[in-house]
Amino acid sequence: MNFNHLMGRNVSKRKCKANNELCYYIPVGNVRSTQGENIHMTMTCRNCGVREDIFLTKEQYFTQQKLILKEIKNV
To answer: I need a surface site. Which of 7, 12, 67, 74 has the fewest CB within 10 A?
Structure first.
């Protein structure tokens, strides 16, 4: 599943180096909580491998939690 909707506006519109289309971001690695009830996640493009770190609010994370954890298990 494509998680571009969680990325910032400037990052989600970035062209992929592999196929010159929009990057296809998926969550990878650990999900960590941070100060202020925020969640840190690492996202990577499935095609070109570009990595981006994002921060979600607690509410944003819990809305997407099942999909995120399912995707991390598949990686």
So the answer is: 74
Task: Please report the beta strands in 1-75, taking only residues with DSSP state E, as ranges in sequence order.
Answer: 25-34, 38-45, 51-57
Residue 7 in tokens = 């990325």
Q: State the pTM of this model.
A: 0.77
Q: Is the pLDDT of residue 46 over 70?
A: yes
CA dihedral 58, 60, 65, 69 (to 10 degrees): -100
Cα separation, 52 vs 24, whole angstroms:
12
User: In angstroms, what CA-CA distances link 70 with 1, 14, 56, 67?
Assistant: 10, 25, 17, 5
Which among 58, 62, 54, 70 is positioned nearest to 7, based on CA atoms? 54
